[in-house]
Write a structure and sequence with these properties.
Blueprint (H helix, E strand, L loop, with lengths): L2 H6 L18 E4 L9 E5 L8 E2 L14 E7 L10 H11 E11 L5 H4 L23 H4 L4 E9 L3 E8 L4
Parallel strand pairs: 1-2, 1-4, 2-3, 4-5
Antiparallel strand pairs: 5-7, 6-7
Length: 171
């Protein structure tokens, strides 16, 4: 890793008056907008109420150190990302999560009304897509990104897709 890249990945410096730790954990809400989830550090490309880190998640690397967070929430953002950046963004989330950390994803189901209603939706997932990130499945061999374990993968064509992935890192 180059020193230039390392210098961009600085440790988060939280305001002293706010305790970002919740039960000893640090959670990141990526693309939180003005609806940041409780107990989370909010990151969004827009400076809105509740946003703690103003940063576009498609600009890499993110301005935080390796293994900073125990959980990342990305709710209804994945379908807005440029498809050619998705694997790199997944690898970036893997980088900032601690070993065993979890990524919680929610998005409209592929081809659903919820997907097609928003003109800014670019690409979404179906129930097979998480298998590209889990080495226990043959689809992983297509891209071989950083390894995740599928913890839960639930979907309904009317209500959407919810996935929890866990980072696989050697301790």
């Amino acid at each position: 890793m180059s020193s230039k890249l390392s210098s961009q990945r600085m440790a988060l410096k939280f305001p002293a008056k706010r305790d970002w730790s919740w039960k000893g954990q640090y959670w990141l809400d990526v693309g939180c907008g003005s609806n940041k989830q409780p107990h989370c550090v909010g990151m969004d490309k827009r400076k809105l109420d509740g946003v703690d880190i103003v940063h576009d998640c498609e600009v890499l690397p993110w301005p935080m150190a390796d293994e900073t967070f125990t959980r990342i929430i990305m709710s209804h953002l994945m379908e807005h990302l440029k498809p050619w950046l998705v694997n790199t963004i997944m690898d970036e989330m893997w980088r900032v999560l601690k070993p065993g950390g979890q990524l919680m994803l929610a998005m409209p189901y592929a081809g659903s009304f919820g997907f097609y209603q928003d003109p800014t939706h670019i690409k979404t997932w179906n129930e097979a897509t998480p298998q590209y990130y889990d080495p226990d499945f043959p689809l992983y061999k297509v891209y071989e990104p950083k390894p995740w374990k599928i913890v839960t993968n639930t979907w309904n064509q009317a209500t959407g897709l919810e996935v929890v992935l866990e980072v696989r890192k050697e301790a």
